Amino acid sequence: MRNKLALFSVFLIFLITFFIIITNANVPVFNTKVDSVTPKVVRDDSPMVLIPAGEFQMGSESGGDDEKPVHIVYLDDFYIDKYEVTNARYKKFLDETDHREPGYWKDPNYNSPDHPVVGISWEDARAFCKWAGKRLPTEAEWEKAARGGLVGKKYPWGDEIDHDKANYYGTGGKDKWEYTSPVGSFPPNEYGLFDMAGNVWEWCADVYDSKYYSVSEKKNPKGPESGVFRVLRGGGWIPNDVEHLRVSYRGALKQTQSHCGFGFRCVK
What we know:
alpha+beta; paralog of FGE (formylglycine-generating enzyme); 2 domains; 4-stranded mixed sheet; 5 helices; 21% helix
């Protein structure tokens, strides 16, 4: 009797299972556990360079008052774009969003796919970084990356500058471009980063304060909490003063402003 009941139970379970399979054959099944760990879509897969954690000397005693005092800053490791964001990369962002086109987007002097995108405000740069799953660099991150491990030097490569090393006002040597140049046209610094001086000014995340260095946090500083201007770094093709290309030079403008010499790169 017990054997018959056991057999009947097995047969009943089989019928129920078969019925469930048949009635749900065309119903999609969602595995929420799998969906929750699906890797994020990579929207901008341009090469990045890992900057190691550690201390560096930020600022310059021979520069402007806002570059003083020289102070030691510790940063956690981070990745930074190897190149400035190009028109080709920015086009992907425009194609997938309703963000406005930047200034000079249709100007043949600036819109080649491999040239850095220009006419970019701080708000535009931040929007791209957010879309890409990245962010703008802090001022400290930017300067550490630009220095390439060198201590106390003026430029990403040392203390001397000429047109073989960067694209800036005028032409000569490797610098044959009157306006922007294709990214990566000049030698990289010791971290393997290109155009950290010249080509375009690069927006940083920080609010600008000329006296911030005297009160800056010693670990992962993020700049003042409020202010009128945002930081720009690196100089560009347009300044006629090579001092603007120094790694410690601090530029600043309102975050809504844009220019044919303004661009950016991202970090994460």
